Amino acid sequence: MATIRLKKGYDLNLKGRIVDPSIADAVVSELYAVVPDDFVGLTPRMDVREGDHVRAGEPLYHDKNYEQIRVVSPVGGVVKEVRRGARRHIDAIVIAPDGSGEVVKHDQHGDIKEVLLASGLWAMLRQRPYDIVPNPEVRPRDIFVTGFDSAPLAPDLGVVLGEDKQYLAKGVEVLKTLTDGDVYLGFRLGEEIEVPGAIVNSFKGPHPAGNAGVQVANVKPVNKGEVVWTLDVVTLARIGRLFTTGEVSHETVVAVTGECVDQPHYVRATMGCQMSSLLAGHSLDNTRIISGNALSGYQVPADGFLRAPYRHVTVIPEVSKPDEFMGWASLCPSRFSIYRTFTSWLLGKKEVSMDARIKGGERAIVRTDEYDDMLPMDIYAEFLVKAIITFDIDKMEQLGIYEVAPEDFALAEYACTSKLELQRIVREGLDRLRSEMA
What we know:
Elements: E1 2-5, E2 23-25, E3 32-34, E4 44-46, E5 53-54, E6 59-63, E7 70-72, E8 77-84, E9 90-97, H1 112-119, E10 126-128, E11 142-146, H2 157-161, H3 168-176, E12 183-188, E13 199-204, H4 212-219, E14 228-232, H5 233-245, E15 251-257, E16 265-270, H6 275-278, E17 287-291, E18 298-300, E19 312-317, H7 370-373, H8 381-390, H9 393-398, H10 410-415, H11 422-437
Parallel strand pairs: 1-13, 2-16, 11-12, 11-14, 12-13, 15-19
Antiparallel strand pairs: 3-9, 4-6, 5-8, 6-7, 8-9, 10-14, 15-16, 17-18, 17-19
Helix pairs in contact: 3-5
C-alpha cells in the first residue's frame, strides 16, 4: 500500500454538510428517466417505443457504433415519453413505474464482457483517453477505482456502499479478467478497505484528490496509445453483485445537501428518480437544484431527474443577497475568496455561504498559474486550455490531453479569474480530438 500526498487543490467548505449518516427512504417517485447525455461517447439507437412495457434492467437503447453496449431501464414500467430536443437529439427517456417488480436476470457464470454489456453496467465505466464509455474491442492497460469523493458536500461512499461492501472482492475478480494489468483502488488516508486482488493506494490532500483522473496521474499516468478504465467503488460493488446474484441493483443512496436543505441527509432511492421525490417538504423558492456537486453537477428543474452517477444532490441559493451594496465588487470583510482578497481568511476555514452567481464577466486568460494550483497533475493546465481552444493537436498531446477529463478542471473553473467555462472547453476538445483521430 502506497500513500500519496497531494498539496495542490482546495477544499470548499460549503454550508449544508450532512452530520447524521442515517439513511431514510425517499418518497416514491411517479416517474423515472434515463438521460443519454450521462453516457458520453454513445450515440443512442432506441430499442423501445413510447407505450412499450419494460422490466427493470431491460435495454432502452444501444450504441450506434457498438450495438452490444446497452443502456437499461432502472425500473419496470411503461415508456411514457421519449423526449427529443434540437435535431431530434434524445434528451430523456421517461418511464412510468407499474410496481410489478419484474427484473431481468443474467447468467452470472456467462461470458463476463457479454454480461456486463447486456446488464447496462458497462455504460457506467469510463475510458481514458477522452473520458467516454469504453470501447469493448480495446483491452485496458489498467483499471482504476476511486473509493472516495472529495468534492464539496460529497457523500461518504462508505455510507453509499452500505452492506454492498461484501461484493467488492467479486467485482475486483471480474475486472481482473478484463485487463492484462492491475486493478487499483484509491481511498482516503485512514479509510482504506483491503480487497483481495487489488492494489490499494491511500491519498491525502484537498479536492480533487478523489477524482479518478488525479489518482491515475499520480499512480501510473496515461501515455499516448494507452487506454485505462475508471469507475467508482459503488459501481465496482454493483458489478460484484451482478456476478454473485445475477441481478443488477438500481437502488442508490443519495446525499441531499446544501444550505437550502433544512436538514441535509441521506435517502435511499432508485436511479433516475424525480428530484421532487428527494426534496419533498423542502422550500425550493429562489434555489438552484444541482444533480451532483456544486462544481461539476448538472442544473435541473424541480420536476427534473437524478442524473448519473446517482448519489448526490446539492441545493444552493440562486441569489442570496440581491440588494447587496456594490454587488460582487463589495469589500465586505466576511466575503469568501480563495485568493485572500478579503480579510475573511483570518477567521479560519469556517463554513461559507455561496449562491449561483458568476460574479464577473468573461475576459482574456492572464498567466497566473491559478489553474496549476488547483490541479494536482503533472501538466501545465493553462497552456493545455489554450492549446484546446486553438485546437493544436501536437501541443494538446504534449501537454497531457489524454490524461484529463472535464471534472478535473471543475475546481480550476471555479477559481478562474477569467470566468472561462473550462469544463465545456475540455469536453469539446476531447470530443473533437476523438473525432479527428478516428
